[in-house]
């Protein structure tokens, strides 16, 4: 086995690391995996047969708008747009963040198009995989649209936010999962925690009654392994993996201290403590924003 520092290349890529998630779902070579994930999550309402990746930096016409960089951004042949985020750290403002992202997707449709009109707005999906829970009684999946508060009627199906709270997935095997997208989430969870070997996961997939094309997506995800990375890719992944592990360690410590204090000011202090620790560990400003929910300005004041 090859050593390049602290880590050894020996198993599936960790999909909860930003670099790993983008490597699996955000590359042109793997766009069939992204289509497979979206079709499992959104089907049978939506059937995606082609997809094109977009620049993951959400820029607006106004330079004063907040700069947003997301994990994966793509559009299908009908010009529907899909934003996917992997969030590891609890974010007090996750609802606001997803609402803002979805609005920016709609806004981008009208930029720099002289013949554009409101009828050209297509569907947008802001999808967030959360390695935490953000509400009192969490569920694995929740779908949000614009609805009437007086009548059970959708105002518009164009605006969609989907949250996936991964701690709510408690399946111990692929066979225990009820939906095909749950199987994929279970695989990602297992790959991240190295709960089972690649061979064990592949054997589980073979033992389930699923369409062959769905099984192939699962096989491809499981077989996205560290051994296949080039030296340059491995260095990038290793650096991000190191930051991920340090970040999660800091967050766990902060959560424990925050639980002991148990007050709103304690939660605010927790985010500040985490931000300071991440700054000391050389973590990027973008990652600290995602990990704490603090603004760039608040974080810069702590430096």
Describe this entry's structure for a reader:
This protein is α/β, with parallel strands linked by helices. It has two domains: 18-229, no CATH class; 230-303. 44% of the residues lie in helices and 15% in strands. The chain contains ten helices and eight strands. The strands form two sheets. It has a six-stranded mixed beta sheet with strand order 1-4-5-6-8-7, with helices on both faces. Strands 2-3 form a two-stranded antiparallel ribbon. The radius of gyration is 20 Å and the shape is globular.
Overall shape: globular
**Rg from C-alpha positions?**
20 Å
Oligomer: single chain
Please provide the count of β strands. Answer: 8
Largest sheet properties = 6 strands, mixed
Unreliable segments of 5+ consecutive residues: 1-5
| Strands ordered across the widest β-sheet | 1-4-5-6-8-7
Structure class: alpha/beta
Indicate how many domains the architecture comprises: 2
Q: Count the helices. How many?
A: 10
**Mean pLDDT score, rounded?**
84
Helix % is 40-55%
Proportion of strand residues: 5-15%
């Amino acid at each position: 086995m090859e050593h390049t520092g602290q880590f050894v290349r020996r198993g599936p890529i960790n999909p909860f690391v930003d670099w790993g998630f983008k490597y699996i779902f955000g590359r042109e070579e793997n766009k069939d995996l992204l289509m497979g994930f979206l079709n499992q999550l959104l089907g049978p309402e939506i059937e995606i047969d082609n997809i094109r990746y977009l620049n993951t930096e959400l820029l607006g016409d106004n330079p004063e708008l907040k700069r947003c960089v997301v994990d994966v951004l793509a559009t299908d042949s009908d010009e529907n747009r899909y934003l996917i985020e992997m969030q590891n750290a609890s974010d007090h403002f996750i609802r606001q963040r997803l609402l803002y992202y979805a609005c920016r997707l709609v806004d981008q449709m009208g930029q720099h198009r002289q013949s554009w009109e409101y009828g050209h707005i297509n569907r947008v999906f802001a999808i967030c995989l959360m390695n935490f829970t953000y509400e009192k009684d969490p569920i694995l999946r929740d779908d949000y649209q614009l609805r009437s508060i007086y009548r059970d009627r959708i105002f518009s199906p164009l605006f969609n936010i989907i949250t996936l709270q991964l701690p709510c997935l408690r399946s111990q095997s692929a066979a225990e999962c009820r939906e095909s997208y749950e199987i994929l989430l279970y695989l990602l969870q297992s790959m991240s925690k190295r709960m089972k070997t690649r061979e064990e996961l592949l054997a589980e997939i073979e033992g389930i009654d699923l369409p062959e094309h769905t099984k192939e997506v699962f096989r491809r995800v499981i077989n996205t392994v560290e051994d296949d990375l080039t030296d340059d890719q491995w260095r990038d992944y290793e650096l991000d993996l190191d930051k991920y592990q340090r970040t999660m360690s800091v967050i766990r410590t902060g959560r424990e201290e925050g639980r002991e204090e148990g007050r709103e000011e304690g939660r605010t202090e927790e985010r500040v403590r985490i931000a300071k620790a991440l700054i000391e560990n050389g973590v990027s400003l973008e990652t600290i924003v995602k990990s704490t929910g603090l603004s760039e300005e608040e974080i810069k004041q702590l430096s």
